[in-house]
Specification:
With 256 residues, the chain is of the alpha+beta class. The chain is built from five helices and twelve strands. The strands form two sheets. The chain has a seven-stranded mixed β-sheet, with helices on both faces. The protein binds biotinyl-5-AMP.
């Protein structure tokens, strides 16, 4: 037993040596009525996924590849808040556990020394006005060595071990992550504490106050990121001085 002592997250944990994608397994279990807070965790993913069908490199024993099933009583529009909540919880967990400074790149990337160390993939099953379940997939490059990082990712990805110079205790980190998500998810359910969480998210987010290129599909434009609102949308001033509100979806942004 991990002795998590959480109220919702990780009361039940399913562990695999190897799996296609923990998100796919979590969605399957969620569709079969599993309880809220269930975590699927694997030592290796053979088909780890990012957004838009992109690949997520997930070598055996080198990372934390996990998915959490949530059943919040919310409108589909609110689900993106859970991505931000998870990014904040995981960045705090890594900081508490390793002492590294972890920045958030809106909406779903965690970055150490300018390189990606963790990605989050939120997938939802919903009806028009009600969410059935949300699966939060979290991939953390814990003990990947430089050789585990594919050449094409070498200048944009790193791991905790590379940054620290030693391997981390993945079980301990997993505990911190589960407890931090549990704590922030409880704040999310008790909506009155949400604003304070977003204040903390904004402080950790590297995009606020900087210029960025916003891309969706083939369309790209540049603007100044001025804020993130309490719904988790990015507020960007475009070239005509007009304020645009960006909800995460499939948008990708790049600092300039
Ligand atoms: C993400 O997508 O960052 C979300 C990644 C979520 C992975 C977790 S692992 C557990 C769960 N099960 C899954 O199948 N997925 C989730 P995106 O923003 O689309 O970024 C993907 C891009 O990051 C790729 O196209 C690569 O450029 C890069 N990348 C791939 N693997 C990486 C890694 N291990 N570390 C850093 N960057 C990586």
């Amino acid at each position: 037993s991990l002795g998590l002592d959480t109220s919702i997250i990780g009361r039940e944990i399913v562990h695999f040596l190897s799996i296609g994608s923990t998100n796919d397994k979590a969605k399957e279990l969620a569709n079969n009525g599993c309880r809220e807070g269930l975590i699927v965790v694997a030592e290796e993913q053979t088909g780890g996924r990012g957004r838009l069908g992109r690949q997520w490199v997930s070598p055996q024993y080198r990372g934390i590849w996990m998915s959490v099933v949530l059943r919040p009583d919310i409108q589909p529009m609110e689900a993106q808040k859970l991505t931000l909540l998870s990014a904040l919880a995981v960045s705090n967990a890594i900081e508490e556990c390793t002492g590294l400074k972890v920045d958030i790149k809106w909406p779903n990337d965690l970055v150490v020394s300018g390189k990606k160390i963790c990605g989050i993939l939120t997938e939802m099953s919903a009806e028009v006005d009600k969410v059935n379940h949300v699966v939060i997939g979290i991939g953390i490059n814990a003990n990947m060595s430089a050789e585990d990082i594919p050449d094409e990712l070498k200048d944009k990805a790193t791991s905790l071990a590379i940054e620290l110079g030693y391997n981390v205790d993945r079980k301990n980190l997993f505990r911190y992550i589960s407890r931090n998500i549990d704590e922030l998810y409880t704040c999310f359910i008790n909506a009155n504490q949400w604003h304070d969480l977003m204040v903390e998210y904004r402080e950790k987010c590297i995009n606020v106050g900087r210029r960025a290129v916003i891309s969706k599909g083939d369309v790209s434009w540049e603007g100044m990121v001025t804020d993130i609102d309490d719904d988790g949308a990015l507020i960007v001033l475009d070239g005509h001085g007009e304020k645009k509100r960006i909800i995460s979806g499939d948008v990708s942004i790049r600092g300039v």
